[in-house]
Amino acid sequence: MARVRRQFSREDKLEILAPILAGECGVGEVSKQRRIHDSVLQRWLAELASSGAAAFPGSGRPDPAQAEVVALRKRLAEVEQENAILKNALAYFGRRGQP
Fold first, then answer.
1. How far is 21 from 45, CA to CA, in rounded Å?
2. pTM of the predicted model as reported, rounded to 2 decimal places
3. Per-residue pLDDT reduced to its tens digit, 33-60
4. pLDDT given at position 88
5. Domain co-membership, 55 together with 68
6. Which of 7, 85, 87, 94 suits 79 as a labelling partner, its CA being 20 to 30 A distant?
7. Burial of 19 per CB tally in 10 Å (0-12, 13-18, 19+)
8. Residue 2: what pLDDT?
9. What is the DSSP letter of 61?
10. 54 lies in the same domain as 70
11. Residues in the chain with pLDDT < 50?
12. Radius of gyration of the CA atoms of the chain, in A
């Protein structure tokens, strides 16, 4: 029988992590109580520590506005790289023509 992968909402994750964050019990104890592997809880704690309020955004798909920002930043990086290459080529070929 195939195992079903459980998915937790942002609220569920915060509720599960609350006793750990409050110092009431450790990761191992919560892991046993909730039947969630302790490495998953450690990953959630790390994400919460690094991202703060932006942790656990949802189903892994950013909202359309955020997706557009990511796409635009990627395109900007590509254009900046192309620009740097062209500047180097101009400097190289500009020097070749002079005695």
1. 9
2. 0.56
3. 999 999 999 999 998 888 877 778 766 5
4. 93
5. no
6. 94
7. middle
8. 76
9. -
10. no
11. none
12. 24
The DSSP letter of residue 2 is P
Which residue's entry shows tokens 């790289």? Answer: 81
Cα-based torsion angle of the residue sequence 21, 27, 29, 35 in order, rounded to the nearest 10 degrees: 110
Question: Which tokens belong to 52?
Answer: 């703060």
Measured CA to CA, the distance from residue 52 to residue 69 in angstroms comes to 20
Tokens representing 57?
């955004």
- The residue behind tokens 């992590």 is 17
Report the pLDDT value the prediction gives residue 52, as an integer from 0 to 100.
Answer: 79
Placement of tokens 């192309």 in the chain = 82
Instruction: Give the domain range for residue 87.
Output: 62-99
DSSP 53: G
Q: Count how many domains the chain has.
A: 2
Q: What does the block give as tokens for 92?
A: 């190289």
